[in-house]
């Protein structure tokens, strides 16, 4: 097991990808009017890519298309003081090929928000990083050692 300087366990690329496949809701970080913006989205993993739906006229679709974005998922148990986080960074693009759209329409991608979601956005992760915090039986973080980062 590898640990960063903060004492968090560093997750390897395989575990980062597995956790991405496990979750259903994540947060996309993009730039809107030269400021950082964060928006929750329902998503699926298609191959190695993260895919979500949005309205073609949304600020997310406009700002994220052709940009480098970050995508984050996490899960925490505040009572046990444990949890993990995975961040994927890479370019986002609108899906425009008819065959690709047809295939994605068959994916198990259920949006929670109301309204029309007529555009698929695909993020190709070029960097993955993940961290986990675990506490021992006495409530103190487990022993930590070295620093690291996983790459896609």
TrEMBL record:
Biased composition (Basic and acidic residues): 135-146
Residue numbers spanned by region Disordered: 132-152
Signal peptide: none
InterPro entries recorded: Pyridox_Oxase-rel, Split_barrel_FMN-bd
Name under which the protein is recorded: Pyridoxamine 5'-phosphate oxidase-like protein
């Amino acid at each position: 097991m590898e640990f960063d300087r903060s004492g968090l366990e560093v997750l390897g690329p395989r575990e980062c990808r597995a956790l991405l496949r496990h979750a259903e809701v994540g947060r996309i970080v993009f730039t809107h009017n030269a400021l950082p913006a964060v928006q929750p989205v329902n998503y699926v993993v298609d191959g190695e890519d993260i895919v979500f739906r949005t309205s073609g006229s949304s600020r997310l679709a406009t700002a994220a298309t052709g940009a480098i974005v970050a995508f984050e998922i996490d899960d925490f148990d505040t009572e046990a003081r444990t949890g993990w986080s995975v961040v994927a960074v890479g370019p986002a693009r609108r899906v425009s090929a008819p065959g690709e759209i047809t295939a994605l329409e068959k994916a198990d991608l259920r949006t929670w928000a109301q309204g029309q979601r007529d555009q698929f956005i695909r993020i190709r992760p070029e960097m993955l990083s993940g961290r986990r915090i675990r506490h021992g039986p006495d409530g103190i973080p487990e022993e930590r050692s070295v620093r690291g980062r996983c790459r896609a």
